[in-house]
Design brief:
Shape: globular
Radius of gyration: 18 Å
Strand order of the largest sheet: 1-2-3-4
Strand content: 5-15%
Largest sheet: 4 strands, mixed
Order of helices and strands: HHHEEHHEEHHHHHHH
Mean pLDDT: 90
Oligomer: single chain
Number of helices: 12
Distance between the termini: 39 Å
Number of strands: 4
Length: about 280
Amino acid sequence: MQTAFPYHPSQDSRGDLLTAPVLERNARRSRGVSGRITWAHVLWIEPELERRYGGDRHDPGVNRERALRLCPLPPGAPVPRPLAPLVPAASALPARAADAVGADPEDEAFELIRRTHSGYLCELAVGIVRSGAPYHPDQGSRTPFTAFLPEDGAPVGRAAALLASTARELLSQWYDAHHQAGESAKAYPLPPPAWAHHVFSLSVRYEFCRRVRDEPGHAPARRHEAGELLDEAAGALPPPAALRDRLPGGVQGSVVNELLSLAYPLWDRVRFCLDSPFDGLGSL
């Protein structure tokens, strides 16, 4: 039977067309995609991070402890202040402890992240939020388990920058886990890290801005700012054909490739929740 929105498997490039029904489905099922990424991180990545960085992954303060142990605060740094969970209390995720350093825990940027249900990446990957310029992997430095909130700018742009910084850190942890895992995982080639960080952070920025622009409860000025930032992110992302060409082994050639495919907003990303060769994978 013909439908307005035919289903195409992940390997079928006909599913790469960003039609109006695909846009609608991506928006309607975006929480499900977030859940899929959360499930994968908890199941595959966190055990490897525990082996690499220590700490108990079941401890709510594990990422905060790792962040402060791996990159201690310099003398004279602002005292860390507890940050309220960025995932709503009704979430199935256990609330993880995080601190703000130099940033105001009551900053509107944090509230925007909560209201759009966009904080799941922060809960998974970050124990410290520092005030300052975001991390860029091409500069050759990284502050593990830490994200950055810009000091200046409008709340939507600053929240988007914090989430992009968090996305870069989470993806770094996926690369860490891949290298920490056994030989079976290492057999899968990964895309170039700097390029992958660029794509993933822009994809996360796009989805947050879409939620602010399209979902109820946001002021017109916030919607307008989000729309402009969304268009910037869309213009900076590679087109679907170029994305496929840069993923070694195809869109599902590795778990990192699948993460990028799930997050990438310019095609039908929901299909990667339904058509995955990794469904039975219990660990890396």
